[in-house]
Amino acid sequence: MADDLNDLLALHLVPGLGPRLTAALLERFGSASAVLKASVGQLAEVPHIGANLAAKFRQAMDQVDVAAERARMEQHHVVLLRRGVPPYPAPLETIAVPPDFLYLRGTLEERDAQAVAIVGSRHGTSYGLRVAERLAADLARAGFTIISGLARGIDAAAHRGALKAGGRTIAVLAGGLSKIYPPEHAELADQVANSGALLTESPMPMEPMAAMFPARNRIISGLARAVVLVEAAEKSGALITASHAAEQGREVYAIPGPVDSITSAGTLTLLRKGARLARHANDILEDLLGIAPIVASASAPAAVAAPPPKLEGLQQRVWDALAGEPRHIDELTRSLALPVSDLSRTLMVLEMSRIVRRLPGNRFERT
To answer: Does residue 193 sit in helix, strand or coil?
Structure first.
């Protein structure tokens, strides 16, 4: 690292000193080195800082440990990307308030410019998780990199869909890369880094706080050509990503859901406000590629409806009964007029064959 980059990194490590104030300081003092040498009084002269913030910034600058940050980066195999210097992602240069630095674990490639972000509720239903995973897989097979936020629910399903399809995926985190959040996604984060990248603008040890997620979302949308919302409540953070996308000139898509579902309320509102409706990957590919591609898609209606091969008798009857939404075993027993023992044995065979899956509450759905 050159001295000027070390000085810029030192500024980046000052808590509360975001891209806007950093830009104001650099404009006032001419260089990061000069900012780090400025007195409290000089810092206070910069617009939007004032005496109180100047004193806090001055104290923080004196305590910044760039060497420790670099050591953490090396330990976790993280590199630092500086704005304006490749491989800093070119799409982010065009957004409002681009991050000055990005921490990268994994790799970025030129083809990542062809990216679609898939985001949604942390409390996705089985319908939403299924659609997100299939949509991500189909788009990945078509050559698009899948962007999301590694959060629980829809985000994780999107990453997994891309990984299962052998595609590339990028996770943008709110906190630092030395401690993955949520912790149960540490293994998923490793898989994403091996097949794409983990990105954040937060220093390595920083814990994610609620206020950091909206800022993170501007990076998710900024990296993508389009943003797709799969389930989002009326006040979901995913709606902030959609708002950023609209401001950045990205296409915004929404997956329709049941009109009485809380988790689809936000996506349905977006559709009323003019978001593009997406039923499956082909809708998005037709818009982005200018053609009507045919993707071998589990998310396209025809593919969803097609039964798996070599089903006969009772297995076929059970498969047919599971069309649409998940069904409770008691409901299946009544509709098929079967003894519970016969139905249970058939469901077990289908589940072991990964043709159906069991959900919480003794409900079942097609895979």
So the answer is: helix
Please classify residue 339 by burial: count the beta carbons closer than 10 Å to its beta carbon, then call 0-12 exposed, 13-18 middle and 19+ buried.
exposed
* Cβ atoms < 10 Å from Cβ of 39: 10
* DSSP code at position 144: P
**367 alpha carbon, distance to own chain's centre:** 23
Contacts 24+ apart (CB under 8 A), 324-332: 325/127, 325/365, 326/126, 326/359, 326/363, 326/364, 326/365, 327/363, 327/364, 327/365, 328/361, 328/362, 328/363, 329/362, 329/363, 329/364, 330/362, 332/364
Per-residue pLDDT of the chain (367 residues; tens, 9 = 90+): 467 889 999 999 999 888 889 989 999 999 999 999 999 999 999 988 989 999 999 999 999 999 999 999 999 999 999 998 999 999 999 998 899 999 999 999 999 999 999 999 999 999 999 999 999 999 999 899 999 999 999 999 999 999 999 999 999 999 999 999 999 999 999 999 999 999 999 999 999 988 889 999 999 999 999 999 999 998 888 899 999 999 999 999 999 999 999 999 999 999 999 999 999 998 998 888 865 554 555 444 433 334 455 687 888 899 889 887 888 988 999 999 988 888 888 887 787 677 888 887 788 888 7
Provide the b/e sequence for 11-24 (b: ≥16 CB within 10 Å).
bbbbeebebebbee
Hey, what are 339's tokens?
Answer: 């003894």
**CA gyration radius, the chain:** 24
Could you give the angle at which helices 281-289 and 126-141 cross, rounded to 10 degrees? Answer: 40
**63 three-state secondary structure:** helix
Alpha-carbon torsion, ordered 306, 311, 317, 322, to 10 deg: -40
pTM value is: 0.78
Are 121 and 91 in contact by the 8 Å Cβ rule? The answer is: no
User: How far from 231 is each of 1, 92, 152, 294, CA to CA, in Å?
Assistant: 43, 26, 13, 25
**Cα–Cα distance between 35 and 24 in angstroms, integer?**
10
